[in-house]
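queue> pop job 88
queue> type: inverse folding (structure -> sequence)
queue> payload:
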C-alpha cells in the first residue's frame, strides 16, 4: 500500500471530496492508465476518459473487475471504490447521455495516479470473476472463501438496479436482486467448473426462491455469467446433473447475464470469519464449510 498524505487519507479512506476543477487530472489527456493511489491497481484507461465539464475527471468505462459499487449511507448516490483495497474514488452516474455508453464515473484526481502508455508494464492478468447466488450470502461467502485459488469473495446484490441495492430493500423481496457472492479466482489454481461443483453442493438448487428457512426471490439459486464460455459450462453442468438424477427434483437454478454487482453493507463483510462463535455460524455455516473443504480436497485429489 502506498503512503498517503493527510488530504489523500481524507478522500480515499474517509470518503471525502476534492474541490471541483482543482485536481491534477481534471483536464489531463495523456495516453496511459489511471491507477489507485493507495494500492496501485489499474482502474481506468485513458481512452475511456472524457470531459464532462463537471470539475472532476470523468470516465465512461472501467477496467474489468477494477471497480466496486456501494450505495451511499443516505441511499442517494452510488459510490465507487477500488475493488482491490476499497479506497474511495468518487461516484457513478447513469442516464446523463454524455457519451454513447451513458455512464459517468466521477473520480477524485487525488484518488489516482497516472502511468503513461510507455510506462505501463505489459503484465498478463489471468484472474477471472464468478458471481453466484445460493441463499444467504453469509453462508456462501464463507464456503468460497475456504477454497485455494479464490483471491477474494465479496457479499452483495446482483440482478437489479442501483437505487434499491441495499439490505432493507432486498430483504423485502420486492426488488429484482439476489443475495450473491462476487468471486475473483485464479483459473490456474481452481477452475470455473470446480467453483460450480462447489456451488451446487453448497445449497439446494431444486427449491424455487428458498433455501431452508430463508424464503423469497432474493434467495433464489442463480449463476450470473461473465462470458459465453461460462454460460456453456453452467448450462452443460446443469444438463449433466439433471440427466444423472443427482437430486430427486428438477434443478431450478437461473442462468443470467451479469449486469452489475453492488457490495453489501460493511456489517455483512466476512460475517463468518468475524462471528464464528455465534450459534447460527456454528450450526448452519460451519458444517457447510467443512463439507465443502472435504469435497474440494477430493476434487484436487482426483486431478
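queue> result:
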Amino acid at each position: 500500500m502506498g503512503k498517503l498524505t493527510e488530504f489523500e487519507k481524507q478522500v480515499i479512506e474517509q470518503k471525502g471530496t476534492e474541490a471541483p476543477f482543482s485536481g491534477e487530472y481534471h483536464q489531463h489527456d495523456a495516453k496511459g492508465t489511471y491507477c489507485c493511489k493507495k494500492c496501485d491497481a489499474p482502474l481506468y484507461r485513458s481512452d475511456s476518459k472524457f470531459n464532462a465539464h463537471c470539475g472532476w475527471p470523468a470516465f465512461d468505462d472501467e477496467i474489468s473487475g477494477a471497480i466496486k459499487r456501494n450505495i451511499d449511507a443516505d441511499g442517494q448516490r452510488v459510490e465507487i471504490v477500488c475493488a482491490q483495497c476499497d479506497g474511495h474514488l468518487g461516484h457513478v452516474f447513469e442516464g446523463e447521455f454524455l457519451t454513447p455508453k451513458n455512464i459517468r464515473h466521477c473520480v477524485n484526481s487525488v484518488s489516482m495516479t497516472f502511468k503513461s502508455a510507455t510506462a505501463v508494464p505489459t503484465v498478463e492478468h489471468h484472474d477471472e470473476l464468478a458471481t453466484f447466488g445460493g441463499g444467504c450470502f453469509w453462508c456462501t461467502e464463507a464456503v468460497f472463501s475456504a477454497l485455494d485459488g479464490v483471491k477474494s469473495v465479496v457479499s452483495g446484490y446482483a440482478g437489479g438496479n442501483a437505487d434499491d441495492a441495499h439490505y432493507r430493500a432486498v430483504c423485502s423481496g420486492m426488488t429484482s436482486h439476489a443475495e450473491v457472492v462476487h468471486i475473483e479466482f485464479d483459473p490456474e489454481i481452481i477452475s470455473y467448473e470446480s467453483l460450480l461443483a462447489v456451488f451446487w453442493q453448497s445449497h439446494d438448487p431444486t427449491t424455487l426462491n428458498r433455501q431452508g428457512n430463508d424464503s423469497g426471490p432474493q434467495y433464489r439459486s442463480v449463476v450470473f455469467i461473465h462470458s459465453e464460455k461460462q454460460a456453456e459450462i453452467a448450462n452443460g453442468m446443469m444438463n449433466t446433473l439433471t440427466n444423472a438424477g443427482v437430486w430427486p427434483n428438477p434443478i431450478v437454478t437461473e442462468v443470467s447475464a451479469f449486469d452489475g454487482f453492488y457490495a453489501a453493507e460493511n456489517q455483512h463483510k466476512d460475517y463468518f470469519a468475524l462471528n464464528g462463535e455465534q450459534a447460527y455460524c456454528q450450526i448452519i455455516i460451519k458444517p457447510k464449510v467443512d463439507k465443502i473443504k472435504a469435497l474440494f480436497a477430493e476434487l484436487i485429489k482426483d486431478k
